[in-house]
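Recap from last week: sequence in, structure out.
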Amino acid sequence: MTATYIVLMEMTELGLEEIFEIPELINQFKLKLKDIGGELKGFYKVMGEIDYVAIFEAPDDEKALAFVMALGKSGYFKTTTLKAYDMDGMRKALSIYEKTFE
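Predicted structure tokens:
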């Protein structure tokens, strides 16, 4: 089973200087993520305080962390990563909460 992750990224000075390199870099990372069982669902340039948003799936936290470390190591981005839960995960958590904490 895969988990979903959301990465919020701010561009670094290097990222700004080498902005034309970013699309190919992301394509390479997309292929490498696929090699380890993950999938890049979307990578977006956005307007506002955040410069980029990525949504991806990975089979485990370690593979997700490896992908996020690769984004950071590129020097183009400062990252903040969120692990996302769908509504089935939310229902399971609510059931645990209800049985344990109420």
